[in-house]
TrEMBL record:
Name of the featured protein: Pyrroline-5-carboxylate reductase
Domain annotation Pyrroline-5-carboxylate reductase catalytic N-terminal: ranges: 24-102
GO cellular component: cytoplasm
Binding site for NADP(+): 73-76
Keywords of this entry: Amino-acid biosynthesis, Cytoplasm, NADP, Oxidoreductase, Proline biosynthesis
GO molecular function: pyrroline-5-carboxylate reductase activity
UniProt: NADPH binding residues: 60
Primary location recorded for the protein, binned into one broad class: cytoplasm
Biological-process GO terms, alphabetical: L-proline biosynthetic process
Amino acid sequence: ADPWGIYAGLAGSGPGPLCSMSPRLIRLGKVPASSILASAPSDKNLDAWRESGCRTTHCNLEVLQESTLVFLATKPHILPGVLQEIRPAVGSHHIVVSLVAGVTLQTLQRLLPAGTKVLRLMPNLPCVVQAGAMVFARGSGAGDEEAALLKSLLSSCGLCEEVPESYINIHTGLSGSGVAYVYLFAEALAEGAVKMGMPGSLASRIAAQTLLGAAKMMLESGEHPAKLRGDVCTPGGTTIHALHQLEKGALRATVMNAVEAATNRARDMAKD
């Protein structure tokens, strides 16, 4: 059996972050395209895999028969049926990685054979450009070897960290949904510049580069964002006047509330 197999159950949806990661893994030589077998109910959801040179099928059990590393990427309400289907084929040699929102490791382990090596992974949209933020947690059957394998495989797609499972919903509120918060802020930055007379296309490019540069400085310097923010401010200068307006608009509290709301929604989905 090929060591790498991907089951991408994407009924009624687009290819998603799992499919967006595969071209990068292939280009880096981490996974040969011929060793990836993707399954989905419709041909539409398999087009992107085929364009990357991967093999495809409509038979989920075929993935289990030919592969040892299996990714599950279904809608939450579809997953129980998929697990029921593949359960008889799951063996001790399989590593099962779930990307399904709201489905806990406890549920996955209950619906799969006892002792199955299960991990839960949560990526975000920038995996498409190899700048993703991913976290994963391991079930009781998965050990250091499985965790190291997953981290090594996905680190080419961005930051990949192992965390306690309780952090996964927080990651959804911080990073999964957080990408949208950043887009909203970028839009507001650019519109402010347009208001002051700059062309929109130029303002959008500069706003994007500003966010990119600020993020890179945070990562490379290791400094707390408050320290970097202070470095930009000069007494009586433009930045401190602008920050005063942001504080009056309660930007910090509003963003914190957004992370809290998204995290709580992710927790509610898990309960459902």
